[in-house]
Amino acid sequence: MMRSKWRAAIAPLLFLTPALVALIGFRLLPACWLVQQSLSGPDGEFAGLDNFEFLFSSPTFAKTLHTTLTFVAVAVPLQTAISFGLALLFAGNSRIVSLLRILVFLPVLIPSSVAAILWGAALRPQGLANALLSSVGVSAQPFLASPDQALMSIVVTSSWIGVGFWMIFLIGGLKDIPRDLYEAASIDGAGKLSSLWHITIPLMRRPLAFVIVADTVAAFLLFAPIAILTRGGPGGSTQLIMYDVYQQAYFFNDVPLAAAEGLTLMVLMMVIMLIQFRLLSREKQL
């Protein structure tokens, strides 16, 4: 009897062990190491908050932080809106819609490094983008070579990579909405816009909340397009925090400062996600 109870108690722990080992090994221990390194000096000695004081007194980091927040503030709403629009267009089950949905999703299957190279070729002075602009009478644009256009070019590149992925989640949410709600609204004389505003959007708050939060994390952690296309330039106009962490650690060999910057990025993401969850939950209560 005791043996059977022991087996019943130990069996769930055995199933949870791989997940617990992965959580400790790939999440908790690296997080502890990050905190320890952020409080260390160049020679490994305890330095307290010196790295953070240096970061927040540095005009260069202030510009990097501003650029990162600008990128997130533009990229996340843009990608969410485009993904939602595409989900509304391609939520049907016809063959043409299915084919178009596959075409929109294809960039997700391409590695981000390959996608960045493709967009780098398209945005060159003699690339496809300027060829299309010249065909409609618009002069050639510098795109990645311009401090005023480089960040928006990265926004376009990351959006091309990501919108198909977020679209799939939103299509799943749209398919969970009962069709009889739309039929009842149609009987009551509601048009498509009215149904969209009063039925679709309220019932899509949870999928939209997931997309907004997940896309925010992805935007903060964007790395490959920056590293391949601009390397933070020109003039620091695309210097995001994630790429700056990479530079501090591998180019300048300042691991403690990189750890402090990485911890700052993690805390910043958590704060913004908490604000998002709070606002979205408040909307749900209203």
What would you note in describing this structure?
The chain is an all-alpha fold. It has one domain: MetI-like fold (Orthogonal Bundle). Helix content is 77%, strand content 0%. It is built from 13 helices and no strands. It has helices at residues 2-38, 50-56, 59-89, 95-109, 112-122, 128-135, 150-175, 179-187, 192-203, 205-220, 224-230, 241-250, 255-285. The longest helix has 37 residues, at 2-38. The termini are far apart.
Query: How far apart, in Å, are the first and last alpha carbons?
Result: 54 Å
Number of DSSP helices? 13
**Structural class determined from secondary elements:** mainly alpha
Largest sheet: none
Broad CATH class: Mainly Alpha
Strand content: under 5%
pLDDT < 50 runs, ≥5 residues: none
Q: What would CATH call the architecture?
A: Orthogonal Bundle
- Output the radius of gyration: 24 Å
For this structure, what is the CATH homologous superfamily?
MetI-like
Sketch the topology as an H/E string, one letter per element: HHHHHHHHHHHHH
Number of strands: 0
Quaternary organisation of the protein chains? single chain
Helical content band: over 70%
